[in-house]
């Protein structure tokens, strides 16, 4: 990445990327009086031969971010939105194959789910937004190899029992009493990487994969008698790896949403695991990757929101 | 409200209130291996004979906000949480009747709903947080009369057709083209006031009332062929008034979440009500009260978040 | 407000208002190479003869919210933005006097301040946004009388000593120890009402008034040896009333941003008012109005964000 | 990272870390009647020999996150808070050197600045929170080598002229007109890596370094006549590299906060670069690393908030 055309430059350009972020696109598909909705937030990020625009301000290699926005909306019409992943694949392929200076495209998508509102009439075009989680997809393409990482965030779960925490290290700063029956609650942020990487191979069923992975991680959370949030995290990841052949890697970032048992003794009351204070900050933060044995880790250690 | 003990004071105290806000209380009720959750955010606000604490800093009439917090947690144990409204009634009655200087108590509650995660085992103590809306309750008591206003916020709804907007006033600043088929979407913030005001009368079934009102407002939103968001708002309120005898007043604040049809003609594409840009700001904001005929309006014009 | 044209309607329309909210307008004024910035978020809310649009969906009296948006931007050019208050007065007058069905206009404005970045060149057109507080203005006009309420929010202040809290009521739920030296911190949300109400009277100097009131409330916060946050609140309001003749009423909403002294004794350390935990929720919430003696209160009890 | 003690495990543990996040610590230092404030948000993240807690739930190697929280508060007393970086170095060294299973500690700190409120008295213990930006520091230690990355976020800047954008690639989805005088505004998120890595070398002056880098990046933003935001970004990074020997790498994430010139022609008005609409989403997002020639990039491509 050294800059031969500008000798004696003490500061050189490293990794760089650009594009239009957070394009909010809503696609309505009409099947007679029955409508279907896809509601996405699409962020485009392009990399390639972009030294000049940084060094001299020449935009000769720069496809405007405004154009990347237009392309998102045009593709919603041209290709439809079968799934977030499929839509991202169309976009990434387009940018890399249509513009010579662009060598890599990364498309990030948030998807918001909608439920139907049942009506007395025959039409089906009324919806209420599900708020339970935000679905995520990230598609990266370099002209040869695909990387698809899907996931979710904002999924809040709780076990009101079957969680303990004891047997830990005690140093001079340790005051925490051991717990043999506590609430375990977290807001799941998870990402999973598909092993589909080549056009020559058949694509996964993206919609079914999401639905199944979501089901497995919820089941693993609920089924695990937990001795630590780390153990629960591992079980959630392992469950996905074991049941979904299309996934090689899972990463979770799990804040331990502390629920403190309130001391009611000063008021002459016994709190038998009934009344809790739900705390905001600070919170434990447990993060880990779970890999299919023999596979390499590629999901970054720090998950980002978009 | 004039202050006779401090003559010649140019600045006098007006309405005032105080208390602990946003006490996050989670109550687990164990019915064998089946657990039930109530998850509330409770804010206490007390008024009364509080001139001295403002004028001189004397706290002789002040029950500390810390004590109001403790009371919330103690009452969750002592009375349980049958509903947000019932819980607020216990708290408001306590503050007004146990402390002579306190003449009025207002309890505001946000409630977060949880769904069960089905598991293979026999236990039922795993939950995923519903994110669809936040339920609200406000209970005010002055020692004689009750006022209960319930509601919700964050409920996002959309009709993908059956909405028009035309025939409006055009002045020299008007450029908007008329629309004969548009998306109508809003994030409902609503409040409804119960006509239950006296202990002597039987209380409404708070849980059933909420569930039914939520159903009616969603149905009215979905069923109304809309010529303006104002019309839809009125229909939502009127439906509640007509079907729920316990309610005398409804107020809605409805942001018009604009979905702009994207112009795809520059790309040689026809956008037949398919591809929309979901905009953030600015947004139309439609607010109104709907009253049972003959009843008085008491819900403030500006709805607040808590 | 009864609806004579629709007999037998069980649900009638009450107070209502509509308009475009959160129009973000930035006005650059060029004085040679020296530029000046005004950065506002303007919300328009109109009321009047609007029954039909609610009852039948007829928009014959409705100036579109899109038009109110256009008017904001056009007026930024036509009148400039001398101050938020003056700009709101132009807008409110226009809506009420130009459209017969509109009987009242309320303009709410947030203003964001910018500081200059000093440069070596002669130009002065680089700015960094001040983040310290958001300035607020609300202008209401009914065709005859003006009401101007200005204010601020997001102003975080702290006294690291000269605050006590003791001598309060103790009931069975009280566990709080008395404090004789504590941190007092709050995030000020304040509103002040001007006694200018008629075109015939000279307007206040809106910019100078804001600057002076901000100075007085900060001074009063810093100067008051506090026995309770209520006392500090009153002193802040009284200082404004005493020093600023143009103001008749002040209301504050002051969250008590608790800073808890951390117990370091388990680690063999003495915490001599040095190390504090800054807590989020719950928080005490102290709200009150301070009035010029003999004046009436008009600012609503619950302050809203916009 | 393969797990030899659990043969035939299809899902293996990868990178993992844990700790208490967002410990809000406020340190008051009293110099007679003059007080000094440090206000930090400290997040601890530990890694090491942690396989068992994930695989079996054994906490034998786990120092509780609650203990890491206690340590933050105890160290604020024991060492004071000279700077965020110095405080993080004390913490990281402690965790790695005192607990055998812990091989790496990463401390992330947000710092909030406070300004004095001048008072008439002799004391100096009243403060107003600066809101202009959040200072960041990340300290990582593995028992041998230090990595310190400092930075800031939330710094909003604007040039009201001296910005152009033209000469870019035009494809079939390009509709953007070229601009020869536009507003350039962004919210700077930046990180810079120090070349100090060993205890044997003298540490930088962390406070002075921050102040100087902040000054240089603001100056570079203001001084650059911009042909693209990429060029401005590079100039900001290069200015730091050129003037601050202690820094080898800088990364910026710069959202292009679009200010659209409003079309006022429909209203018979000419908008001569005066009235702009400040847009929210979508936004261009420009991200790049600037390196001292010959140095390696280590700051992750995606900056995270904490």
Automatic annotation (TrEMBL), chains A, B, C, D:
Keyword terms, alphabetized: Oxidoreductase, Purine metabolism
Entry's transmembrane regions: none
Its EC number(s): 1.7.3.3
Annotated catalysed reactions: urate + O2 + H2O = 5-hydroxyisourate + H2O2
SUPFAM superfamilies documented for this protein: Tetrahydrobiopterin biosynthesis enzymes-like
Pathway where this protein functions: Purine metabolism; urate degradation; (S)-allantoin from urate: step 1/3
InterPro entries, per the entry: Uricase
Keyword field contains Iron: no
Highest taxon of source: Bacteria
Function: Catalyzes the oxidation of uric acid to 5-hydroxyisourate, which is further processed to form (S)-allantoin.
UniProt xrefs under PANTHER family: URICASE (PTHR42874)
Similarity comment text for this entry: Belongs to the uricase family.
Name listed for the protein in its UniProt record: Uricase
